[in-house]
Amino acid sequence: MQSKLNLPAPDWHSAAKSLRIDGRAVIAGQRRAAQSGQSFDSVSPIDGRNLAPVARGQAADIDAAVASCRQAFDDGRWAHQAPAARKKVLLRFAQNILAARDELALLETLDMGKPIRYSLSVDVAATARCIAWYAEAVDKVYDEIAPTSRSALALIQREPMGVIGAIVPWNYPMIMAAWKLGPALAAGNSVMLKPSEKSPLTALRLAELALDAGLPEGVFNVVPGYGHEAGEALALHLDVDAIGFTGSTRVGRKMLEYAGRSNLKRVYNELGGKSAFVVFSDFADVKRAAVTVAGSMFFNQGESCNAPSRVFVQRDIADDFVKLVTAEAAKYEPGDPLNAGTEMGAIVDQTQLTTVLGYIEAGRVEGARLACGGAQARADTGGCYVQPTVFDGVTNTMRIAREEIFGPVMSVLRFDTEDEAVALANASSYGLQASVWSDNLNRAHRVARRLRAGTVHVNQYDEDDITVPFGGYKQSGNGRDKSLHAFDKYTELKTTWIRID
What pTM, to 2 d.p., does this model score? Predict the structure, then answer.
């Protein structure tokens, strides 16, 4: 196995220099180069360093990986194991993740630029917790007997679906993979994972850790590659039973198209967001609301689908709120992601940096007032950094209020009445998350019910647990990750009707 670290106390810069990275695919328990012999460079957004060549998986590699998954599923090496046996393997997998925490955190930070403190405390920890939770859940999910007449016995049973194609984004590579892997593997499926070409390194290492835990070869394969090559081939594959996709709404539409062009495989899309954060003037602790929205917006460099990028503030407190939130934004000035004290790191790559700066320019051109930030940072490092940015005086017709930016850019919009706040918040094609801030209990309940979003927070934001579902309304997708509801995506319900004479 590659990329081992043996350091008693991580000096992250030294650890990065000694890290050996294997970018080859994992298929049928073996590391493999792409069949074409082609690769692409994994480039760190921290400073532009070349981390490693990564296998450029294409249709032939996807075919090999899916065939391996199918063989493993059909011969029952995993699917036919008792739930309690699968639980033991997945718990060892979770333990392996924690044992490799420093290595995984470093790979995540080098690959996509988030601060090492959060790769370690959030991403690795949440990944292990997710795998362990589904391991513990799988032997506690019961089948059903329908309340039929006495002349029949109708059994309703969950069965694994078969081969699951998982396609995950670059902003939370490990966590998004775990949200798919946990329920899919626990239910007995085989999984073919296609990580983003912008952040493939931890996915490849997770496959090795799963094998070390005793997961049979072929049950979990990883093929890195570009979306228009490996991702498209996976989504079109006739031997894939379902796709679990997290990414942009634009690509989510393609997933549905690919399903229609192939075998009508199930497609579960977790897509973009433009979450509304609504603050009423009856909420006494305005500073807490400002601190919370800044922390949630600028966490992970704003590269979160649920980032509260649309902040609606009642007009009579709006000036004070903007002053408070801009003061908080200053605490998130980008720093070296390998410094343990850094709060905000690098944008994932040069392409995304250009996109974010383009939206900032669009905000200026369309007449929003720049309250703070608005420029590239740390350009001399060769990395991709953007200042935390707040626009005031934004209207819902502006691009920065309508389109998902995926960067540290917040828009503040003002409202007068409750009805206006709800109408503005719901005037979006997205519906992933929202938040209501009010000391009036009736108002908090009333507005929460009226907001069209999969999760509505009240007087907080981003509090989270694996036990609650994650997903959205409208063009934010369908299906739910996390919680027991995720089993619905990766199992078939079979009814067995028995006549009793």
Answer: 0.96
